[in-house]
Amino acid sequence: MHCSIHIVTDTPDPISKKSLISHLASYWKLAGHRITMGPADNIDTDIGILHIDLTRINKESLPENSFHRPFLNGQVIDISKSRFSTLRVMAGDSWDGPVIIKSNLNYYGAPEWRNNSHGFFERKRRKLSEKSWRLARMLPPHKYPVLPNLSDVPGWVWENPELIVERFMPERERGFYCLRGWVFFGKRGYTYKLFSENSIVKAGNITEYKILGDPPPELEEFREANGFDFGKFDYVEHDGRPILLDINKTPTIVSSGAKTRMQQLSEGLSDFT
Predict the structure, then answer these.
(1) Smallest Cα–Cα separation from 27: which of 217, 265, 273, 271?
(2) Buried-most residue among 54, 119, 149, 168 (CB within 10 A)?
């Protein structure tokens, strides 16, 4: 059965072709579904999908759903790290291992930076942070500093509510740093493991990756409890237990070899029709 799907954004601009939802929408179109995108006042299609690339979304700004249609990720309006981190430490804690300083916002706070206006001195300060984040009193763009211990964390970090300090507990295997991920849409999904020589594992610095099996039950429980219909969770494992590091409700897909997995993910739409 064909259906109409509206992907709710906060701008009329096209969604990035790298985004997961863009990949899935291409398969939905091939299957005969009608896809529309952009801001909306009401969900009047068969299915609505919330796709606003901001950490926090004002609930009052969401479209009405007076027809009571499925509105995917409609409950996911705040993915601040402080809401789910189990590694967070505070200034007076007894942790004596390495720590990592992160933005409390998703994806280094980059979407919020782009959306807000910034004065001359703020832009210069951001530029300075690339050379000395301590002097700039601001984290460098797209980087998270790793420090030997809590005593090395500058005092201004603790005073900034948009920063969070966590125990740095990387997963290691064969001398590599590892990062696991779970991409899901409805009941369809896949997990994977990335390997890198860099302590901060990113898609751009991996040396290899492998596809894994079922996601950890703890992450499935977290997903259900927090109303995620689709997205991506980054995590590591220690002693067989997952530690959630990051959650993303508007993920991008960079692997060119993911066509089969994308098609399978797109079939998760049947869970909502």
Answers:
(1) 265
(2) 168
